[in-house]
Amino acid sequence: MLTSMQCFLISQDKRHDPVLLPDGVTVVLGRGPETLVTDKKCSRTQVELLANYAYRSVRVTQRGINPTSVEEIHLHCGDSTTLQEGETLRLVNGLYPYCIRFEQDDNSAKKNPLEFFCSKQNQQKAEEDGKAPTVKRLKVSCPSEEEDDDDSFITEKLKQLQETAAQAQAHSSQKPVSKLAPHPSDSWEDHGKLLVFTKKGIVSSTKVAGFDLDGTLITTKSGKVFPISPDDWRILYPEVPHKLKQLQSEGYKLVIFTNQLGIGRGRLRPEIFKAKVEAVIERLGVSLQVFVATHSGMYRKPVLGMWDYLCKKANGGLEVSLQESVYVGDAAGRPANWAPGQKKKDFSCSDRLFALNAGLPFYTPEEYFLGWKQAPFALPDFDPRALDPKAELYDPPNASLISSSSELVIAVGFPAAGKSTFLKRHLVSVGYAYVNQDTLGSWKKCVALCETSLQAGKSVVVDNTNPELESRRRYTECAKKASVPCRCFLFTASLEQAKHNNRLHHLDIHQILNSLVHELTFYLVPRGRKEMESIRRMGAEL
């Protein structure tokens, strides 16, 4: 049975029948009888849709004045983005939702294998008689010579068909081919906090060679750390273009991953940076895909947002082989004077950590393009890989976590040390009153809630940083007035681990929280029974 793929644009509010989107053919959609949209804010040529069957996606280009959107991405006139299965396209101003569906189309009716391999003479005779061809039945007794020949022919064809089917099944169980069709044209996509450029001719592959941009493929002509003009750049080393062309000839997909926070902060206009990227690629003479993280958050290296987007949505469905892939970057954690010539200290370790998080082999530009030996480097003080997932949650492990009578528990530890998660999961869930200054707004309200809860006979947990004796004394005095015991839960996560937790758990608002972590660089450990009844040392529960 021969099959081929078809792509349909589905009106989610069922205003009209599905629209066929042929592979590689631009379809214009807008106000008109095809969509039954009469809204004057919708142009008659609102969007152009270009289906790519190999990628199982549709390129959406806005041509109208008012915005078209794909998920959370709002386009402007001339902008393009990719629509995947499961995502929603809204034609104009958030209205008229559509989705796409790829289906297998049956091009021929099902046939019995014997029917398919019947002799041409029988088929021709049937057509002449105006009757459907009949299937010749295999006979056991005394077949004629002609029948025997036909049956032998059919048997042989069936055997070939079975062998072909077996080979096809074995082939389908193997790894998918490493390449797909070349990308048809240059294109930019805006995904909110991520920009993606795909050069015409680039081919998806199971092998990816990833690179940082500034300091890895290019540097400034002026010698300044940051470019002083849009054209203040040059290729870092003469060896770079040749190496990239060699990788491309070996079947690698070439990809740039770059952090450009200046765009998100309004210091760098997106169109200027886009022009620079395209000029760099032209100078390199290869086809590349470029991922640009424009804000803090999930896409910014060393977080894996850009890498995950490549693997899940921008590599034609091919699974990337980590062992065969590589990542090259200059933010490698190297100290000052790591090489002759008064080399400066690396500004960060983000490229090395990016590769480490992704599981990719890592090289610096000098190691990869020039063949230098590995330079010394230092990773951050906190290494999450060193944590023991089987470690005791608190010390001593045989201590009672919950009190059967009224008590006060005061948490002490850095912001993002795991206090709130632990306390809500283990104490608040069993009835402890929860006192938290972030929630209540001031320490006076915290003390008031603590007093009233203790007077009502409830146990209370205070979830603040409580770094010094004075801030804790406000609550220990409440315990004394209520004549209840007071315990301290000391969260032992280091400052570096707290910073790590903060970045991990609060990617979208980490700038606010990170300032709190930096302000609190130490705390005074409680003094045992002079201050509280007992102290429990708690590990960070993530």
TrEMBL record:
<feature type="region of interest" description="Disordered">
    <location>
        <begin position="164"/>
        <end position="186"/>
    </location>
</feature>
<keyword id="KW-0597">Phosphoprotein</keyword>
<keyword id="KW-0007">Acetylation</keyword>
<dbReference type="Pfam" id="PF17913">
    <property type="entry name" value="FHA_2"/>
</dbReference>
<keyword id="KW-0547">Nucleotide-binding</keyword>
<keyword id="KW-0808">Transferase</keyword>
<dbReference type="InterPro" id="IPR006551">
    <property type="entry name" value="Polynucleotide_phosphatase"/>
</dbReference>
<keyword id="KW-0378">Hydrolase</keyword>
<comment type="subunit">
    <text>Monomer. Interacts (via FHA domain) with XRCC4; mainly interacts with XRCC4 phosphorylated by CK2 but is also able to interact at much lower level with unphosphorylated PNKP.</text>
</comment>
<dbReference type="GO" id="GO:0005524">
    <property type="term" value="F:ATP binding"/>
</dbReference>
<dbReference type="GO" id="GO:0005634">
    <property type="term" value="C:nucleus"/>
</dbReference>
<dbReference type="InterPro" id="IPR027417">
    <property type="entry name" value="P-loop_NTPase"/>
</dbReference>
<dbReference type="GO" id="GO:0046403">
    <property type="term" value="F:polynucleotide 3'-phosphatase activity"/>
</dbReference>
<protein>
    <recommendedName>
        <fullName>Bifunctional polynucleotide phosphatase/kinase</fullName>
        <ecNumber>2.7.1.78</ecNumber>
        <ecNumber>3.1.3.32</ecNumber>
    </recommendedName>
</protein>
<dbReference type="GO" id="GO:0046404">
    <property type="term" value="F:ATP-dependent polydeoxyribonucleotide 5'-hydroxyl-kinase activity"/>
</dbReference>
<feature type="compositionally biased region" description="Polar residues">
    <location>
        <begin position="164"/>
        <end position="176"/>
    </location>
</feature>
<comment type="function">
    <text>Plays a key role in the repair of DNA damage, functioning as part of both the non-homologous end-joining (NHEJ) and base excision repair (BER) pathways. Through its two catalytic activities, PNK ensures that DNA termini are compatible with extension and ligation by either removing 3'-phosphates from, or by phosphorylating 5'-hydroxyl groups on, the ribose sugar of the DNA backbone.</text>
</comment>
<dbReference type="Pfam" id="PF13671">
    <property type="entry name" value="AAA_33"/>
</dbReference>
<dbReference type="GO" id="GO:0035861">
    <property type="term" value="C:site of double-strand break"/>
</dbReference>
<keyword id="KW-0418">Kinase</keyword>
<dbReference type="InterPro" id="IPR036412">
    <property type="entry name" value="HAD-like_sf"/>
</dbReference>
<feature type="region of interest" description="Disordered">
    <location>
        <begin position="127"/>
        <end position="151"/>
    </location>
</feature>
<comment type="similarity">
    <text>In the N-terminal section; belongs to the DNA 3' phosphatase family.</text>
</comment>
<keyword id="KW-0067">ATP-binding</keyword>
<keyword id="KW-0539">Nucleus</keyword>
<dbReference type="Pfam" id="PF08645">
    <property type="entry name" value="PNK3P"/>
</dbReference>
<keyword id="KW-0227">DNA damage</keyword>
<feature type="domain" description="PNK FHA">
    <location>
        <begin position="7"/>
        <end position="74"/>
    </location>
</feature>
<dbReference type="InterPro" id="IPR006550">
    <property type="entry name" value="PNKP"/>
</dbReference>
<dbReference type="InterPro" id="IPR006549">
    <property type="entry name" value="HAD-SF_hydro_IIIA"/>
</dbReference>
<dbReference type="InterPro" id="IPR013954">
    <property type="entry name" value="PNK3P"/>
</dbReference>
<dbReference type="GO" id="GO:0003690">
    <property type="term" value="F:double-stranded DNA binding"/>
</dbReference>
<dbReference type="GO" id="GO:0006281">
    <property type="term" value="P:DNA repair"/>
</dbReference>
<keyword id="KW-0511">Multifunctional enzyme</keyword>
<dbReference type="InterPro" id="IPR023214">
    <property type="entry name" value="HAD_sf"/>
</dbReference>
<dbReference type="InterPro" id="IPR008984">
    <property type="entry name" value="SMAD_FHA_dom_sf"/>
</dbReference>
<keyword id="KW-0234">DNA repair</keyword>
<dbReference type="InterPro" id="IPR041388">
    <property type="entry name" value="FHA_2"/>
</dbReference>
